[in-house]
Amino acid sequence: AIGAAVASVVGPTELPQTVAGFHSLVGIAAMVGAAGEYLGNAGELDAGTLSAIYLAVFIGGITFTGSVVAFSKLAGMMKSAPLALPVRDQLNLGMVGILALGMAAFLDPSLANLSFLQGLDAEAVRLSSLEMAAVLSSVLGFHLVASIGGPDMPVVITVLNSYSGWALCAEGFLLNNPLLAQVGALIGFSGAILTWIMCEAMGRSITAVIFGGAGKPVANNGNDSTEIEGDITIGSVDNMMESLLEAKNIIIVPGYGLAVAQAQFAVADIAKKLKGMGKNVRFGIHPVAGRMPGQLNVLLAEASVPYDMVFEMEEINDDFEGTDVTLVIGASDTVSSAAEDDPNCSIYGMPVLRVWKSHLVFVLKRTIGNTGYAGMENPILYKDNVEVVLGDAHETCEALRSAI
Predict the structure, then answer these.
(1) Distance from C-alpha of 173 to C-alpha of 330, rounded to nearest angstrom
(2) Three-state secondary-structure class, residue 233
(3) DSSP assignment of 105-157, as one string?
(4) Which residues of the chain have pLDDT under 50?
(5) Number of H helices, E strands in the chain
């Protein structure tokens, strides 16, 4: 009942942080369940159950705090820039090493004879190891996700989804519940596969994402990004209407701003009207548009946009050069040329929709200077073939629909 009440007030734009919030509940439930199982049966558990208990606490701790950080970044409660500690990788490795030693002591308390725990009985050693695992895994989860920048949060969500599944799987083992273990394994594997697909689509290293940016230089948070030169050309709804009516090939690229403005119904009507005039109208969707995999596809489906008009990035990216007009509605990082041209920017190397190669581009933005989730201005706004139409996306699209 509580879940239904929470979900009923969540809008489409809050889905990513809501998913992260639910993952945090799975993590803390795994920790509490594992601790309860141990405390209720101390001294009577076999090695297999003890392993499941420790792993449930370990994975649950990472999932809990990591999900809280992801929620905070997606909800704007934390800055999207990555935490840039100079010894980031060493900290992560050190914590993983200590947690591994803790698991060894949890399974075989006699190892405590070599440590400061000497003199404690076996169950006291196990309890201390479990407490340490709960605290340190929570710190590790916070640091891992905090060290990842905002543009990679969609991938982090899929990683946390996988973690929550493995925590659930461990719970199934320790509770001797095959169904719980099977469901957890299904979630864990599906989340891992989706993470791999997302990393491939974004040009990111799966190792770097899972281990909090491991092996990558400490982020400079965009301070050394290339300075953008030129002027921004301000367009109007009338200019946009005339260009669309004259065009033969049109691509519409929606982004998070469309979801916020709830402009999908107006955009769908515009596309259908133009298609009815004999024009080739298509939608280009970036894999992480909307901060969550598939969010824009769901919104377009809600507005009854035919599936044969919606294309993924790899299917449509080569067609921009032959496109007369491209409409970019509420997208920024996913269409930024800096991802290909500026090695110093935080999204460098991420595949993007090359909208700037179209003959003419209209970018719908609320205000000049309103950056994307990566916190950097989009260089395409300064290109000669790009016009920026300012205003609320919903109002602008409604005006365009009426004009057409």
Answers:
(1) 46
(2) strand
(3) HHH-GGGGGGSTTTT--HHHHHHHHHHHHHHHHHHHHHHHHHTS-GGGHHHHH
(4) 115, 219, 221-223
(5) 15, 7
Known active-site residue 373: yes
Angle 378-13-391 (CA atoms, 0-180°, nearest 5)?
50
Active site (annotated) includes residue 256 = yes
**From 126, 291, 354, 401, the catalytic residue:** 291
Q: What is the DSSP letter of 231?
A: -
- Shortest CA distance to 73 belongs to which of 10, 179, 126, 151? 151
Q: How far is CA 220 from each of CA 80, 84, 348, 376, rounded to the nearest angstrom?
A: 13, 8, 12, 12
pLDDT of 155-200, one tens digit each?
888 888 899 999 889 888 888 888 989 999 999 999 899 888 878 7
pLDDT of residue 317: 94
| Residue 91 to residue 94: CA distance in whole angstroms | 5
- Dihedral sign, CA of 159, 163, 166, 168? negative
At 328, is the secondary structure helix, strand, or coil? strand
Task: Give me 150's structure tokens.
Answer: 């905002």
10 Å CB burial of residue 133 (0-12, 13-18, 19+) is buried
Active-site position among 163, 354, 373, 401: 373
DSSP state of 292: S
Give me the pLDDT at residue 94, please. 94
Q: What angle do CA 57, 152, 13 make, to 5 degrees?
A: 95
Q: Where are the alpha helices (H) located in 329-383, listed in sequence order?
A: 338-341
Phi and psi of 41, rounded to 5°? -135, 30
CA 116 vs. chain centroid, Å, equals 41
pLDDT at 222: 44
**Model's pTM, two decimal places?**
0.76
Helix (H, G, I), strand (E, B) or coil at 87: coil
**SS3 call for 75:** coil
Contact predicate 33/53, CB 8 Å: no
Torsional sign, CA 221, 223, 224, 227: positive
Count CB-CB contacts under 10 A for residue 208: 17
126 has catalytic annotation: no
d(CA 73, CA 173): 33
Q: Which of 256, 282, 354, 401 is catalytic?
A: 256
